[in-house]
TrEMBL record:
Upper taxonomic lineage: Bacteria, Pseudomonadati, Bacteroidota, Flavobacteriia, Flavobacteriales
Keyword terms of this UniProt record: Flavoprotein, Oxidoreductase
Gene Ontology CC annotations of this record: cytoplasm
Species of the source: Flagellimonas oceani
NCBIfam families linked: HpnW_proposed
Protein name: TIGR03364 family FAD-dependent oxidoreductase
Similarity comment text for this entry: Belongs to the DadA oxidoreductase family.
Family annotation (InterPro entries): FAD-dep_OxRdtase (IPR006076), FAD-dependent_OxRdtase_HpnW (IPR017741), FAD/NAD-bd_sf (IPR036188)
Pfam short name (any one): DAO
GO MF annotation list: oxidoreductase activity
Domain FAD dependent oxidoreductase: residue ranges: 6-375
Entry cofactors: FAD
Superkingdom of origin: Bacteria
Length: 390
């Protein structure tokens, strides 16, 4: 019975790990299998911002539940959560109008936010340029994480305190239903059995079900990001999102003025071409993470995006960032890109195979914010647990 589980979760990123968390919370015996020696995909290659404020109404509920869970875990075990809020900075009257409208929507949702005057923004955020900002909207409950370390700390917590079994270096080569159990086999002929198997990784989905993967509406987004050298005697609190974020994030799509404002934007700018919006977040070592860009390809043609960093994109982002915040240094110590899968026509990809195999992937940029809350509902659905409210 050592290799038999109520749930086998395939994929050790944030989505898979929180599916494991919630299965454990139901009192189930759970095994998480990860193809690599440690998680190193999109979960570790993102900004580390948990921003329900940027999500549409449906996903904000999941994001708010994620916030609660992150803070609850952090109170027991350090997983790098810092509650220092999120601010959106408007650069003109149109963006300021969208902030006013978003605040009204969130007042109706009982989600706290506060409008900041230009002067309050300048006082709160050192280096912010007076010729950029006109107003801000601050969400005090939101948090940041250190993405390159958080997932490892979270998994250690689940192993040490919740009884999770994890098998690393376990590339899944087959997933077969047979009676009561689903057999999950690795390339090394290791085998585990689950009453339910949940595949939460796009690469494993592609390997296991290539035809289904190829016919799906999954696409991938390549995001370039950078990290400055540590900033001397400089503190930038929380997540800083700017005018182009206001014009991009799904939450603002629900604002009455959004469609008209988007329709008047230039169609052939470099910002549009590369899908750029400018974000800032100070890491624990004092450096500042900058980004990001978005380039898209169908998931089965991911290679079309290439494997290089485009310096023209990075230089463009640095130039735009300098128009917003005067940092002590814009010297870059690290550059990287993340690859996220998402759906063209839905908010997440879900497919049930042979009743006991569930594919859940394509959460896109919602992963760090939405996975914890979404996984709670999805695990309850898969295991027919009592209906839960988010």
């Amino acid at each position: 019975m050592d290799n038999k589980y109520d749930a086998v979760i395939v994929g050790g990123g944030i989505l898979g790990t929180f599916h494991a968390y919630h299965a454990l919370e139901l009192g189930l015996k759970v095994c998480l299998v990860e193809k690599d020696a440690y998680p190193k995909g999109a979960t570790t290659q993102n900004f580390g911002q948990v921003v329900p404020s940027g999500m549409n109404t449906k996903w904000q509920k999941f994001g708010r539940e994620s916030l609660r869970l992150y803070k609850e875990i952090q109170s027991q075990f350090d997983i790098s959560i810092r509650q220092n809020g999120t601010v959106y900075l408007a650069s003109n009257e149109e963006e300021e109008q969208l902030l006013v409208e978003l605040r009204a929507i969130n007042n109706g949702n009982d989600y706290p936010s506060k409008m900041l005057t230009k002067q309050q923004c300048l006082e709160r955020y050192p280096g912010l340029r007076s010729d950029y900002v006109t107003a801000g909207l601050f969400f005090p409950d939101e948090v940041t994480v250190e993405p390159r370390t958080m997932i490892h700390k979270l998994q250690k917590y689940l192993v040490d305190q919740k009884g999770l079994h994890i098998k690393f270096d376990f590339p899944v080569v087959s997933c077969e239903s047979g009676g009561e159990w689903v057999s999950v086999q690795s390339t090394k002929n290791e085998e585990v059995y689950g009453k339910k198997v949940i595949v939460c990784n796009g690469a494993d989905f592609k390997n296991l079900y290539p035809e289904m993967f190829a016919s799906s509406d999954l696409e991938v987004s390549k995001l370039q990001m950078m990290q400055t050298k540590p900033q001397k005697d400089f503190e930038l609190k929380g997540s800083i999102l700017t005018g182009w974020s206001i014009r991009r994030y799904e939450a603002f799509h629900e604002c009455p003025s959004f469609a008209k404002i988007k329709a008047s934007e230039p169609k052939d700018s470099l910002q549009k071409k590369w899908g750029v919006h400018i974000l800032f977040k100070q890491a624990a070592d004092g450096s500042v993470i900058l980004g990001d860009s978005h380039q898209y390809a169908d998931a089965h043609k991911m290679e079309d995006l290439g494997y290089d960093l485009d310096m023209d994109i990075d230089n463009f982002m640095i130039g735009e960032a300098k128009k917003i915040i005067d940092l002590p240094t814009y010297q870059i110590q690290k550059r990287w890109y993340g690859i996220y899968s998402q759906c063209k026509n839905s908010d997440i990809f879900q497919k049930t195979i042979d009743r006991n195999i569930h594919v859940v992937t394509g959460i896109g940029g919602k992963g760090m914010t939405g996975s914890a809350g979404f996984s709670k509902k999805n695990i309850a659905t898969i295991f027919n647990a009592q209906k839960i409210n988010l």
